[in-house]
Amino acid sequence: MAGVDAIADWLATRPRLILDGALATELERRGADLNDALWSARLLVERPELIRAVHLDYFRAGADVATTASYQATFEGFARRGIGQDEAARLMRLAVQLAVEARAQFWDEAAAEPDHGGRRFPLVAASVGPYGAMLADGSEYRGHYGLDEAALMDFHRPRLQVLASAGADVLACETLPCLVEARALARLLEELPDSGTTRAWISFSCRDGLHDSQGEPLADAVRALDGFERVAAIGINCTAPQHIASLVAVARANTAKPILVYPNAGEQYDPVTKTWLVGSACGGAHRSYADQAMDWAEGGARLIGGCCRTTPADISALFRRWTASV
Predict the structure, then answer these.
(1) How confident is the model at residue 125 (pLDDT cuts 50, 70, 90)?
(2) DSSP 8-state symbol, 326
(3) Which domain covers residue 159, as residue numbers?
(4) In this structure, what CATH number is given to the domain that contains residue 303?
(5) For the CA atoms of the chain, what is the radius of gyration?
(6) 0.85 cut: is pTM over it?
(7) 173 annotated ligand binder
């Protein structure tokens, strides 16, 4: 609905919102080959039904949000495959449609329980990946693109316009390595007409407990976004879990907006081989994802989920912990 802040509406009645976990990790676990510049967006062409199934399983696990398979879906990326603009836009809209269909199926299932099992009607977040995702070389973990704000606005504008009108509840501008890209997207939100989705969360990838991936103080980035009305929440994703508590504290000290976090599982990504180097699960050998997530919630995070290498089992564990604590 035009002008609605779905996140504020949710948090007005519930203390927290559970995000989903990794999409690509689950797709690969189910046999998909994502060693590809399009990553999970490849399956929008080849196996869309598998994407829908993963969204459904995250809803069943307890997620209140499905984040679409559009992270690496760009006009430039599709063009390299010989896919024209009209078809590329259709595939972007399909990414949202698959999540919406999975939500409808979940909600029908939940109707068999009194009060839908205590669940609220879930949200769909249309993923807007960074410029570095289109490059497919790991730049979202380094930044330093060599592009100014205007150039980044020009890159993001066409896709943002498509996704904003595709039927999602919120846009997920995620894994941003630098402030200049975050500002570009925040400014583009102000351009969106009220006939579609106009609110977004903005989430940074970070190199440590104080800095974004490009090396800028996260405090500066958060303060710079605080005045943008259509930025519904600010946070951190695809960052090692051991840095999250510090980053939440930094974010909370510099904005009144809701804080969101969805770290990866604590492994290191190799952009050359496009593989994850196995490390301690969730960044700590003796603490589960759910245990750490409860700490992040106590620190002030209100939207919590997982990024690369997290699973429906992680989200289910978090759902059970939060349900038991209410």
Answers:
(1) very high
(2) -
(3) 6-325
(4) 3.20.20.330
(5) 18
(6) yes
(7) no
CA atoms within a 13 Å half-sphere pointing along the CA-CB vector of 233: 32
1 domain-assigned = no
Higher per-residue confidence, 108 vs 276: 108
Say if 216 falls within a structural domain. yes
Is residue 18 within a helix (H) or strand (E), and if so which, with residue range? Answer: strand 17-18
Annotated binding residue at 307? yes
pLDDT tens digits, 138-154:
999 999 999 999 999 99
* Least trusted range by pLDDT, from 137-141, 204-208, 268-272: 268-272
> Which residue from 197, 154, 144, 173 is spatially nearest to 6, judged by alpha carbons?
197
Q: Which helix (H) or strand (E) holds 67?
A: strand 65-67
Query: Is 238 annotated as ligand-binding?
Result: yes
| Six-digit token string for 151 | 């150039």
Structural domains counted in the chain:
1
State both tokens at 46: 């080849």
Rounded to 5 degrees, φ, ψ at 21 are -110, -160
In a domain, 309, yes or no: yes
Mean of all residue pLDDT scores within the chain: 92
